[in-house]
Amino acid sequence: MAQKKTKSSSKPDVLHIGIDLGTSRSAIVASNGKRTWVESYVGWPKDFVAKKMLGEGILFGEKALENRMSVTLVRPLENGVIRDGTARDEEAVRELIHHLIEEVHPEEGQRIQAAIGVPAEALKVNKLAIRDAVREYADALMVVSEPFSVAYGLDALTNAMVIDIGAGTVDFCVMHGTMPTEEDQRTLTIAGDYVDRQLKGLLEESHPEARFSETAVRHFKEQHGFVGTANGKLPMKASIGGKLTDIDVSKELKAACESIVPAITETAIDLIARYDPDFQEVVKKNIFVAGGGSQIKGIAEALEDALKEYGPCRVRVVDDPLFAGAEGALALAQDMPDEFWEDM
Amino acid sequence: MAAVPPPTPSSKHDILRAVYEDNLRVGDPAATSGHRTRRRAFAAPTLGPVPGPVLAPPVSRRFASAVIALAVVGVMLVGMIVQGLQAGAAQPAGQSASASAQQRGPMMGPSEEDPALSNARFSVDHPESLPIAELFNLQVNTIVIDPGHGGRDPGTLGATGMREKDITLDVALRLRDRLERHEGYRILLTRETDEAVALGDRVAFANDRGADLFVSLHVNWIPDASVAPLETYYFGLRADDATLQLAHGENAVSDYSVAEFNTMLQRAGNTVKFQESKELAVAVQHSLVRSAGETNAAASDWGVKAGPFVVLLGVESPAILAEMAAISNPDEEARLGTAAHRETLARSLEEGLIAYLQQRLLTPTPTATPHGSEEN
To answer: Are B162 and B169 within 8 A, CB to CB?
Structure first.
């Protein structure tokens, strides 16, 4: 487990935790210095045979994915939101949160005060379900949107915009010195999963003889995703007639990754344009890109190029994007005055 | 759009206060009811859901959803249902019969077997032989069709990427065309395009327009791809006999529409809704199963069930939620990709609705042929 020097809790009887509950990955950072992340998958053995074989009643993250043939696999925030009435998704969220909190090893009797960043849509639709999911494992809770928690962690509370490119959604949030309202935020469902589908479709079109699994396509995008100029060939292994063969997929990968740029640009401009011109100019020079999608090579430059059409701008990728949301949530939890923490 | 004035930055403390207040607005049933849950011991073994008809949604979630929805239905109904669900909340989650599409199965019984829902009923059951709508010659004028999901919410996805939201919309549009051939009905859709419509907005749409019937269309997904279950839900609470007899005496020659009657009856419990929802669900389910049996050997009748769906609770008229196909079944998904099959689904739904209306004497005399020609 990774450890990072975090502002230690002034009260050892209280453990502050920050969680980034993402569609693709979820991360946790605690005031005891521990932090970790997991792929947002939960798997339950399909039957007793699978349970005996796996040796566990529930699997998380990569382990659940690796054993997907033996488990009922749930990705609870599939589209950035827990579908209404889907008890299994809610159960998966609850277990995921339980698992994450266990990973930072709270001490017996320690009071847990948690802040959780969730996709903006989940914040609107599922806040109550998330509170229910956390209720058993924490004493007090604050739920905020992921881009806001990122902004809080960056201390970019004013004159800034955060674009959180997740798997299920791209969330936009303009910070102007107050807690963002719905008017300050936008959500796009053209996000990482959309890129995966595009890439798979393009590959199948270009190489009809080959077979590509969704997992392999996603992993390849995460490792090599880029926009702009390709640096040579990008070979990907694919099964052709049962034989693993290297195929150059640079063209398809570039096209798939670039497919989300216009929508992000358009939405960013649409959101910024509703503010006063002076404020627009300032915000455009202070745009942060976070989330898994920020790891697409060249994404900040591509967005900057596209946004320059509307005037000078500066787009940066946040440091440590995997933990940026969780770190921000932890900072918020630690800064939150005692009187604002109420038992659930 | 008018430009937003220059924002006034506030202190970090103000922002934290705003976060606190925003979270406060969520509401916390446990806090208000005094039933605070103890934090689970971290050493406790983890027990997750297993495939099949086992797991129920978390009680607190169901409770909360019910509370939210009940605010729409009315004060009297709130009292009754909260009482019932609170009783249900006292049981272990695993014993509750309410479950998601992934967890329910063919053996799960209707509301009669569900203690939570049973407790939410009136104390005196209304005899089946006294259908209020029929007795008072109520009429159905407005039928609201609700294509599930939409916009950012695709609903369930098939293996080939087919989206539930597209199927529900297409079938709903076809169903509207079919029902409009029957004179005397106003057919409305909660959405006519691929747009996100919140559940509350769907409820408000139906209620504001005086819906007499509400049909929510969905497509099922279950882990077992070999089966194509069909099931239809209603939220049904029965009327007490005394209320029925009183209303019978005073409204014997009423020409009230179902929606108008509902408004009056709410203070005594929304009898028509709960009684007729089940009848409507039975008719639609029967039609769906009959039709599916002709085309898909994997089709399985999972029956008519009661379920605490928010959209069914909030709508004041008789309301059902039909899981009209199963996208998790590869054959069914392939069929759903054809216009002919979606038209067949629309026809099945139409037949079920018309059968219900005729059986309950709720329909104006049709002047058009109930079952039109196929459209592809």
So the answer is: no
Per the CB < 8 A criterion, the answer to whether A143 and B23 are in contact is: yes
Instruction: Please name which of A21, A10, A148, A31 lies closest in space to residue A95, comparing C-alpha atoms.
Output: A21
Structural contact between residues A187 and A291, judged by C-beta atoms closer than 8 angstroms: no
B168–chain A nearest CA distance, Å: 16
Residue range B38-84, pLDDT digits in tens: 354 544 333 333 333 222 333 333 333 333 333 333 333 433 433 43
Residue A129's beta-bridge partner residues?
none
**Residues A220/A253, Cβ–Cβ less than 8 Å:** yes
Residues of chain A with pLDDT under 50: 1-7
- Of the residues B1, B4, B224, the best mutation for testing chain A's interface (the one with the most A CB atoms within 10 Å of its CB) is B4
Residues of chain B predicted below pLDDT 50:
1-2, 5-7, 27-38, 40, 42-130, 236-256, 260-261, 264-265, 267-269, 363, 365-376
Q: Which of A132, A179, A278 sits opposite B60 (nearest CB)?
A: A132
Longest distance between any two alpha carbons in chain A, whole Å = 65
Q: Which residues of B5-38 are buried (b: 16+ CB within 10 A; e: fewer)?
A: eebeebeeeebbbebbebbeeeebbbeeeeeeee
Q: Looking at residue A328, what is its pLDDT?
A: 97
| pTM strictly above 0.80 | no
State the smallest CA–CA distance between residue A93 and chain B in angstroms.
11
For A230, phi then psi, to 5°, come to -80, 140
What distance in Å separates residue A90's CA from the closest CA in chain B? Answer: 8
The order of strands in the sheet holding A243-248 is A210-211, A235-240, A243-248
pLDDT in tens, B109-136: 333 333 333 333 322 233 344 455 555 5
Q: Strands, DSSP E only, in A168-256?
A: 170-176, 185-188, 210-211, 235-240, 243-248
Give the pairing type, strands A287-290 and A71-74.
Answer: unpaired
- In the Cβ-directed half-sphere of B137, how many Cα atoms lie within 13 Å? 6
Cβ separation of A139 and B19 shorter than 8 Å?
no
